[in-house]
Amino acid sequence: MKKTSFVAVCLLVYSFSLFGQENVDSLFEDIKFKNEGNGFFRSENIDFIRVKSTITEDVEFAVVIYKPKKPGPIVLISHGWHQSVMPPERTSENPYPEFLTVQVDMRGRKYSTGEPDCNGLELYDFFDTYLFLTEHYKEYISDPEQVYYIGGSGGGGNGFSIIGKFPDLFCSALILCGISDYAEWFKQDEIGEFRDEMIPWIGGTPEQKNEAYKSRSGITTVENILTPAYIIHGETDIRVPVSHSRNFVGKSTAYNKPVSYLELKGVGTRNHWGNIGPEQEKEKKLMSARALEKHSPPILPTKGELIVAGYVVTKHFSVFMDSIDQVGLIEYDLDKRTCSFMEGTGVITWR
């Protein structure tokens, strides 16, 4: 997809709206949507439906599925911290026309059942979405190996974590102003805007649940990463300090991981993109377009080690710790079909 026309399309749709909203900044504002009028539906171009979790009984999460006019790659999109998906109109345009574009409403949010758990099993719902798409939307998918991720703010935090929990799933990830360390974010949230959710969603404070905070933080699983990460953050962001991206990029660089970083000087107030200038907006759009160019699917090395932050899922095997609040370490050999715990205990399942 490295064609000028495709990049131009990406820039155009991004400039209008990331999720089909009138104001792209509203993606990153932590608000609850008030739109009560739209029910679930299926139509020729858009489906707004629920998908059943395969690992948690009675949990169903909403997805908004925009169908491309011809088969394309998959892009999975995460909403913000306090948000739910935005219910579409039947006439809404696909924000990424060349993709099967899917917005995932995390469990416990407005249109889904279950309880939020801050990068716990709610991230497995993205994998369930992928499996659901490959079974029920085959005619809209050009290549099931072509899977991309986009998320900003709270969704950016999801992005840092999901590429470590699913190391060989995403061809690239666009992560905007995301949280890479939830214990650090807890400390930085002096007014308690996000602590009120972190405590029940994670089960306590960082002092009480230190390992649980680590298991949810993308900074913990940097060594696992195979997915190219395209990261954008404003230097003066108040709600998600730029240290989250800087620390993630620094650790990724130290481990020689595929990461591209754009830091926008002087950008960020309580609005993540506050004070952004025209040239900086252009840079942001160009980086976003690069993230959605065609990338090769990641390949898990034949043997190695993986950090298990609650769980890790590959195309070959999955590993769940005894609790998603735990962090462990496994070593594996695909040729010998062996996998064992070096640290911690849990369940290993081969595909």
What does this structure look like?
It contains 8 helices and 15 strands. It has 351 residues and is an alpha/beta fold. It has 2 domains: 4-299, Alpha/Beta hydrolase fold, catalytic domain (Rossmann fold); 302-351, no CATH class. The strands form 3 sheets. Strands 1-2-3-5-4-6-7-8-9 form a 9-stranded mixed β-sheet, with helices on both faces. Strand 1 and strand 2 (46-52) form a beta hairpin. Helix 1 (4-16) packs across helix 8 (278-291). The protein is globular, with a radius of gyration of 19 Å. Residues 1-38 have low confidence and may be disordered.
Précis, in short:
The chain is of the alpha/beta class and 351 residues long.
SSE inventory with pairings:
Layout: H1 4-16, E1 41-42, E2 46-52, E3 60-66, E4 74-78, E5 100-104, H2 124-136, E6 147-152, H3 154-165, E7 172-176, H4 182-188, H5 195-203, H6 210-216, E8 229-234, H7 243-254, E9 259-264, H8 278-291, E10 303-309, E11 311-313, E12 317-321, E13 327-333, E14 338-343, E15 346-350
Parallel strand pairs: 4-5, 4-6, 6-7, 7-8, 8-9
Antiparallel strand pairs: 1-2, 2-3, 3-5, 10-13, 11-12, 12-15, 13-14
Number of domains: 2
Uncertain runs with pLDDT below 50, 5 residues or more?
1-38
Return Rg in Å: 19 Å
* Oligomerization status of the protein chains: single chain
> Could you describe the largest sheet, including whether it forms a barrel?
9 strands, mixed
The computed structural class is: alpha/beta
Please give the number of β-strands: 15
